[in-house]
Amino acid sequence: MSIPTLDGITAKTITTERLTTRVLFSGADDGIPVVFLHGNVSSATFWEETMLALPAGFRGIAPDQRGYGDADPAAKIDATQGLADLASDAVALLDTLGIAQAHFVGHSAGGSVLWRLMMDYAEKCLSVTLVCPGSPYGFGGSKADGTPIWDDFAGSGGGTVNAAFAQMLKNGERGDAPGTPRHTMLSFYYKPPFKPAREEELLSSMLATHVGEQDYPGDMVPSPNWPAVAPGNWGMVNALSPKYAKSPEYLYSLDYKPRVLWVRGANDQIVADNSFFEMGTLGKLGFVPGYPGEEVYPPQPMIAQTRAVLEKYQAHGGSYQEVVIDDAGHTPYLEKPETFNAAFHAFLQA
Q1: Alpha helix (H) ranges present in 103-172?
Q2: Which of 153, 155, 210, 327 is 20 to 30 A away from residue 346, measured at CA?
């Protein structure tokens, strides 16, 4: 992958004990470290503007996560471990760079990685900023309290991804017809009619997703339960399934609880209480045949789940702040950078 970087961003190839990958840097080497984890179907490229806007004295660090960008294509995500591979990759990067603690920022699936990183490596976190994170119960197939709708977690995992979309990623499709990566980015990553200044670079970032049965979207198994697919064992989409999610109860029992900033776009259509990427919502709207009804398979209330978990986290001694950015979709740090950075920088410097 050869995506041009902005002035002030340095790209390096870093090898840790777990992974060789491209890592983007901003700021002085001795600055307070801020590690940025990108979301699904993207790469570290999405964070460049936010890294350059960091206050003086901070150092931005953004890796291409396993399965994306210039990460070693031989390194696969073992979904049966949930998001442990990616959380451990981030900590191994800190160790290789000689960093004891950092502020962590995660967008979308990168935010989901931070739920796991908090559970397993809380002591590494100076703070945690979750930007439109996936629900701490996982993506798809769960009721409001986090219990699964089906015992086999049908309706989550790699089988829920549109196969044609995955093939377009693999083919490097750069057109703008409905359903293409570009159309998906402009329609769902952001609130239309927003268009990013670096649209071509961000599209290239999406197209650098590793595609296959062990990558994106991953494998699947047939299910007797609607919608007839259950999660497999490989790749990010399967790792996001509630089947493999570590219980939020681990957050409540932490001795050290990092402070949390939760930022979301008011018009997010990807992580929402009625997400257009979740089977319950799509079935209810008639896009997936055979829907058994809302009493059997309700849309997953992702925002309500996240808020309930963070409120319980706070009740057990942690702290969190929720910031909702108006007129923004799933990527508010690009759509409304001034508003996002005002809240983010105040949180970092608190």
Answers
A1: 109-121, 163-171
A2: 327
> By the 8 A CB rule, do 235 and 76 touch?
yes
Domain range for 335 is 10-348
Neighbours of 118 (CB within 10 A): 26
Q: What pTM does this model have?
A: 0.98
Distance CA 257, CA 262 (A): 15
Examine residue 237 and state whether it is found in any structural domain, yes or no: yes
The pair phi, psi for residue 93, each rounded to 5°, is: -65, -45
Which residues are registered as beta bridge partners of 35?
A: 61, 104
pLDDT tens by residue, 116-168: 999 999 999 999 999 999 999 999 999 999 999 999 999 999 999 999 999 99
Tokens of 172: 């490097």
Q: Which is nearest to 37 in space by CA: 128, 170, 172?
A: 128
Angle separating helix axes 109-121 and 84-97, nearest 10 degrees? 70
Angle (nearest 5°) at CA 214 between 180 and 88: 105
Dihedral (C-alpha) 211, 214, 215, 216: value to the nearest 10 degrees? 70
Give domain status of residue 2, yes or no.
no
Q: What total of structural domains would you count in the chain?
A: 1
How far is 232 from 221, CA to CA, in rounded Å?
Answer: 6
Distance CA 77, CA 238 (A): 9
DSSP per-residue letters across 214-277: TSEE--EEE-SSTTSEEE-SBSHHHHTSTTTPPPTHHHHT-SS---EEEEEETT-SSSSTT-TT
CATH number of the domain encompassing residue 190: 3.40.50.1820
**Half-sphere exposure in the Cβ direction for 73 (13 Å, CA):** 9
Residue 158 domain-assigned? yes
Residue 4, in any domain of the structure: no
The tens digit of pLDDT for each residue in 7-54 reads: 999 999 999 999 999 999 999 999 999 999 999 999 999 999 999 999
Q: How many CA atoms lie within 13 A of 187 on its CB side?
A: 11
